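Dear colleagues,

For the upcoming journal club I promised to circulate an example of a predicted protein-ligand complex. I picked one with S-adenosylmethionine because it came up in last month's discussion. The inputs are reproduced below in full, followed by the predicted structure.
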Amino acid sequence: MSPGASAEAVLGTAGIARRDVGPAESERASRAWWDADADDYLDEHLADIGQVDFVWSPEALHEADARLLGEVEGRRVLEVGCGSAPCSRWLATQGAHPVALDLSASMLRHARAAGTGTGVVVPLVQAGAEHLPFADASFDIACSAYGAVPFVADPRQVMREVCRVLRPGGRWVFAVNHPMRWMFPDDPGPDGLVVGQSYFDRTPYLEVDDDGAATYVEHHRTMGDRIRDVVAAGLVLDDVVEPEWPEGHERVWGQWSPLRGRLFPGTAIFVTHRPA
Ligand SMILES: C[S@@+](CC[C@H](N)C(=O)[O-])C[C@H]1O[C@@H](n2cnc3c(N)ncnc32)[C@H](O)[C@@H]1O
């Protein structure tokens, strides 16, 4: 991630720290961060994610091409960590019945404005992914394009919650930064090709204010951890998609760049389902 300078100013970010951080502090930091950064994030990435489009990752993998969710027409779909909700709006245009959930009120304000602006209005819910405010078996499909999962202290709880709200047989597909990226500095250039830390070091990355309170948090899980999280929640893992950097795609998105993307994966997309 490349946190924006103005969110840092608003939150009083004073430095970087590496320490354990629990679910409550993580959620508090993420809400404050995404509230403060929402305008800048969308200024920078609207061209990448669109208003009515489902883009899985900086490799520009579109759901319209990848079809990782299977048939969506007529399906009830939960999007977890929807941001401004372009994916949910795209799903609505495909005949799905999406519900777009996010922790950040500022992100959801953008989602509401974009719904009005595009004429594709989807239901929006403000909540954290570790406690989904839905009844059991409410959805046929759940999805997340870099929403919530990399930012929570207890991703296994997110897996359990999504499994609970899916109907038996329902599919859960989520994209996160590829675990191997953790070893490298968040630098899209040549410096980002040199290993800087252990893949096995799960100590979270934090930005902190003068009092040491977290203003931004990212959690690391190895590939094995992610698979164990899925399986421990009672889900079945069907596939792990590692999108390759497409020929001719020159767009730099934070730490994701053509230089690095041609050498190693930047995104992992886990395709899972709740057993029937
Ligand atoms: C990188 S954005 C991705 C969203 C969307 N796919 C996009 O490209 O705009 C991450 C989103 O996850 C949300 N988020 C972070 N932690 C969350 C949590 N614990 N529960 C729900 N949403 C969360 C943030 O508010 C933010 O909108």
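Two points we might discuss: The two ends are 37 Å apart (CA to CA). Helices lie at 5-11, 23-49, 63-66, 86-93, 105-118, 155-165, 223-232, 258-261.

See you all on Thursday,
B. R.
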